[in-house]
Amino acid sequence: MGPSLDISIALIAVAPFLVAALAPWVKSFAGGLAGWVLAIVPAAIFISFVGFIPTITDLSVIRVGLDWIPSYGISFSFFVDGLSLVFGLLISGIGTFIVIYSGAYLAGHPHQGRFFSYMLMFMGSMLGLVLADNVFTLFVFWELTSITSFLLIGFDHTRQAARRAAIQALVVTGGGGLALLAGLILLTLITGQNSLTGMLTTAGVVQQSPLYFAALGLVLAGAFAKSAQVPLHFWLPNAMEAPTPVSAYLHSATMVKAGVYLLARMNPVLGGTDQWFWILTVVGGVTLLMGAALAVRQTDLKQMLAYTTLGSLGLLVLLIGFGTKEAILGAILYLCAHSLFKGAMFMIAGVIDHGTGTRDIRILSGLREAMPVTFIAAVLAAISMAGFPIAIGFLAKEEMYLAMTQGLWPDLLFLAVLILGNAMMMVVGLIIAFKPFLGPVADTPHAPHEGSLGLLVGPVVLAVLGVVAGLFTPWINASVLNPTGSSIYNNLVDASIYLGFDLANPAVWASIATWVLGAVMFWKADQVRNGLRRTGEAIGWTFDQGFDAAMFGAIRLAHRITGALHHGRLEWYILLFFVLLAAALFVPLIMTSSLPPVPDMPILNFYEWGAIGIAAIGLATVLLARTRLTAIAALGIQGFAVALIFMLFGAPDLSFTQFMVETLTVIILALVMTRLHLDQVDHRDLETALRDGAVALAVGAGIMMVLLVVLQTELDLSLTELFRQTSVPIAHGRNIVNVILVDYRAIDTLGEISVVMAAGLAILALIRLRASPLATARKQQKGRAA
Fold first, then answer.
1. b/e string for 128-166 if b means 16 or more Cβ within 10 A?
2. CA-CA distance, 426 to 528, in Å (whole number)?
3. How far apart are CA 243 and CA 276, in angstroms?
4. Regarding beta strands 62-69 and 74-80, do their DSSP bridges make them parallel or antiparallel, or are they unpaired?
5. Burial group, residue 565, by CB count within 10 angstroms (0-12, 13-18, 19+)
6. Which of 85, 123, 529 is nearest to 264 (CA)?
7. Do residues 583 and 713 share a domain?
8. For residue 73, which of 133, 10, 147, 8 has the smallest C-alpha distance?
9. CA dihedral defined by 650, 656, 658, 663, rounded to 10 degrees?
10. pTM score > 0.70 for this model?
11. How far is CA 280 from the centre of its chain?
12. Looking at the structure, do residues 668 and 769 belong to the same domain, yes or no?
């Protein structure tokens, strides 16, 4: 690995964020060409990734890092292997067309420059996520994807639906991110490594740890939330409130694939156990079937595609959980195929909406003549989505079916799930490819017209690639499947897929069953949709409604807790504080059997007895005071007694500070209490007095015990010796106390000065507040006299 590769990785990680800051300015001078200009950045990143292919094909790993928190061994590090390279190519390659598409789709939008900024920040976050080596670097970018997706989903913030969808996505994925952080910390503690490359070398260690299930659950919670697995799937369809370029990018190659990436990356670290197998396969299978069924039920183009994305994510999770070599290779192929055909499909849905004014499949018809290029792109994308030869989608289905035909149970069960799920997603692809374009010309909100070059270049290129990529199986084997499969499988993988149609292969018959079932459901699409709608209405409850109920329940619970704890009675606040303080002082001493012995009463000098006597007089005065003013004044007597002790024992600076603090305290309290009638008497019944007295004695006794523990601990003079030796040569001061205050703890001293200044300002404010009503009253009297 040379320095040029290091520089390339660093630029890849940083470039999108830098350009995001310039995007509004680029939009202002480039105008309608801003999308093409800004697309240069992801295109350059894509070319950089292409340059990594020869190195990665040799199963090498490119790694670069910068010390971040060296004391904890944490670095801001990145690495490229087969898995991260595939994701990087998809993110940057599809991102190039998405930026161009955004420029055409949002042409004339007043906030297009801001949209470009959000999109590029999102791209940078995803690139940082898939390239991150250190787990804390991974977490930072993981959360950045949640934040930037929140901005993109809620871009049209004037609509309540968009705001709700953005908040929902942030709550679900952000909560999953916190669970992931806890899981990554556990993995760091178990393996002793805080980098992914380091953890990969400890494969098998985590599975033997008693903390394995906890770490597994936390990591899966983060991955399932990000990749919208049941029951955390509901945010993804609602994210369709975002502009279509966001949907196309988020659902094809970026955010929703982050959880899949994490599961694939963690397969060597957490995989290979029954828990991993059953959780991923069951959750993935349920998500596949639910997403595919709900997709067939929809009539909005974007919603149909959103739910098929949900099903595809479940399929990928199922394959990763299954964990065989064929399943892993099938997952890689399907990951690439899905990114290509789904990115194209979403952009096609946007072109149709842009050209007709509607996305309702029940209205659209006869667009083939008006939108021929869009029609061709839709058909090509549907071919890959349905898994027809020669598309890469066909290779993906063949490989995943091959993985499920190696045994009986549970292979055949999962094979049935895959066939049913893929058949329903095939129906959606065929509906989108043919229903809007064939048949009589429908009456749409405005006259249909073909999209511009900026709208069409992305879907056309992606759709064509999804089909012709299946012709290059030798290159796919060597440059994609071998390095990527080896990264996930944690063993050397020698892929040998080929484009063929061998009827002796049971996977081919599984594909035929998928096509037949899909064709029948496509023929009866309206009946299937109506049946699914009736089923949904019979159930009458959705996870989306459950989220609302949970959020409103949390708000109500918070309101009740706030009402119970913040009831506005200052007396109870103070009482609770001192009760907890007493507990905090005594409980650790009791639990650790550290209660100190009470020393014998020392022989005191007369002046020491005098200081104690002053404090006692002040205490008695407070307790026996008849008015509030007397109690306030007496409160300062104890402080003055402490200041006197400081002075007698050779700490004049502390004594002076204590005198100042006590004086200011008494003045502030007196000024505050002027509004509370200082001449009144605070009467308390015996029960209240005993309660407050007991709490006060407990706090005093606790502080005394802690001080006794400190005094009975052996005095460590190392810091004292350091100050003595360095006071003159380093700080150039012979008064060690002054040197400590001014040099060694200068920030602390500045803080104390700030406190005194704030106290003085508070006194001034209170005086002015008190003086203002008096001045007003005098003016009123003068006015009446006049």
1. bbbbbbbbbbbbbbbbbbbbbbbbbbbbeeeeeebebbb
2. 14
3. 36
4. antiparallel
5. exposed
6. 85
7. yes
8. 133
9. 150
10. yes
11. 22
12. no
Q: How many CB atoms lie within 10 A of CB 675?
A: 11
17-59 residue pLDDT tens:
999 999 999 988 888 888 899 999 999 999 999 988 988 888 8
**Is the domain of 758 the same as that of 651?**
no
* 575 lies in the same domain as 664: yes
SS3 1: coil
Q: What tokens appear for 322 in the block?
A: 């299954």
Copy the structure tokens of residue 613: 């006597």
- Cα separation, 409 vs 405, whole angstroms: 10
Q: Note whether 713 and 581 are same-domain residues.
A: yes
How far is it, in rounded angstroms, from Cα 712 to Cα 715?
8
- pLDDT at 2 exceeding the cut of 60: no
Closest of 149, 153, 266, 116 to residue 199, by C-alpha: 266
Amino acid identity for residue 413 in this structure:
L
Please give the radius of gyration of the chain, using alpha carbons only, rounded to the nearest integer.
35
Does residue 352 contact residue 374 with C-beta atoms inside 8 Å?
Answer: yes
Which residues face 62 on adjacent strands? 80
Amino acid residing at 102: S
Q: How many CB atoms lie within 10 A of CB 672?
A: 14
Instruction: Single out the residue of 285, 291, 292 nearest to residue 320, CA to CA.
Output: 285
Structure tokens at 327: 């399943």
What is the span of the domain harbouring residue 752?
A: 745-786
pLDDT in tens, 690-730: 888 899 999 999 999 988 888 888 878 888 888 888 888 88
